[in-house]
Design goal:
alpha+beta; four-stranded antiparallel beta sheet; disordered C terminus; two-stranded antiparallel sheet; 4 helices
C-alpha cells in the first residue's frame, strides 16, 4: 500500500512492483482486467530513456541509475486492489470497526460514501503502520529502511494517533502457512482455524461510480490465498463478489 504524495490525496493498494519486475513477474498485463472500462494493456508500457518500450512497472529498466520520469508504477492499481496482509477481522461486520468518515479524515480524503458507515479497523491500522515508514525516495536509496516497516508484521499493542488507536492483535504479512497463526486453542485447533481460501488478497476496484468497475453491471470479484503443490506455488481463486458501495447521502 502506498500513500499518495503531492497534490493527490488517498492511498494506492498494489504490489510493490519494484521488488517483482521483471525477475518474479515478467508480464505487466496481469494488472489489467480484460473487461475494465478504464484500463488497457497499452497503459502498462512506455518508452524509456533510450527509446525502448518497457513496462511502466519497472523503475530504471536501463539500470543506469537514472530514474527521473520513470515513476509510473501506480498504473498497476488501475484494475485491482492488493493487500499483502493476512486480514482475519476485516469484514464489514468486523469485531473492531471505525467510521469511514473518521478514517478518511486522517488520510486527508473525502469519502464518497456515508461517513457514518463502519469499516474494518484492522485495515486502517495497517494503513497507519505503513504511513509510519519513511517516504520512499525517487532514487530508492532508502528502500531498505522503507521495507523494514512495510514488510514486517504490525505488532499487537502498537499505538497510533497519539494513543487514540492501539492494536489489539498482531496483523501478519502474508506468507505460506500464515493461517496457522490464527489458531488460538491448540487443544481445539479446528475451532479457530482459518483456511487459506478465507484470506482475501486481491479484488476488483469498488466504487460509487459504475464505470470504475471491471464487470458491468458493477460487480467485483475477490481472490484469496490458496495453497498449491510446492512446484506450482500460489494461485488465486474467486471466492465472493461485491456490489457497489452506497453513495454518501443515499
Amino acid at each position: 500500500m502506498h500513500q499518495c504524495v503531492g497534490t493527490t490525496t488517498g492511498i494506492i493498494t498494489m504490489p510493490n512492483t519494484t521488488q517483482l519486475m521483471p525477475e518474479y513477474l515478467s508480464d505487466p498485463n496481469v494488472f489489467v482486467c480484460p473487461s475494465s472500462a478504464i484500463m488497457d494493456t497499452d497503459d502498462m508500457y512506455r518508452i524509456d530513456n533510450i527509446g525502448n518500450e518497457v513496462s511502466v512497472l519497472i523503475v530504471d529498466p536501463e539500470r543506469d541509475g537514472v530514474v527521473a520520469g520513470e515513476q509510473h508504477w501506480w498504473a498497476g492499481a488501475g484494475s485491482y486492489n492488493y493487500w499483502g496482509w493476512a486480514f482475519h477481522d476485516a469484514d464489514m461486520d468486523s469485531t473492531h470497526s471505525i467510521p469511514f468518515g473518521v478514517a478518511f479524515s486522517v488520510i486527508g480524503a473525502v469519502p464518497g460514501i456515508d461517513p457514518a458507515m463502519l469499516g474494518p479497523l484492522q485495515v486502517f491500522e495497517v494503513y497507519l503502520w505503513e504511513r509510519s515508514a519513511p517516504v520512499l525516495l525517487p532514487d530508492l536509496t532508502n528502500l531498505t529502511a522503507w521495507m523494514q516497516v512495510c514488510d514486517s508484521d504490525v505488532p499487537s499493542g502498537t499505538a497510533f494517533l497519539g494513543g487514540a488507536i492501539t492494536t489489539l492483535y498482531t496483523t501478519y504479512r502474508l506468507r505460506e502457512g500464515i493461517e496457522r497463526f490464527f489458531i488460538t486453542d491448540i487443544n481445539n485447533p479446528s475451532g479457530s482455524a482459518q483456511a487459506q481460501s478465507q484470506l482475501p488478497i486481491m479484488w476488483d476496484l469498488i466504487s460509487t461510480r459504475t464505470y470504475n468497475f471491471n464487470h458491468v453491471p458493477a460487480v467485483s470479484t475477490c481472490s484469496s490465498w490458496m495453497a498449491m503443490s510446492s512446484s506450482s506455488g500460489i494461485r488465486t481463486t474467486v471466492v465472493r463478489s461485491m456490489r457497489p458501495l452506497p453513495s454518501s447521502g443515499t
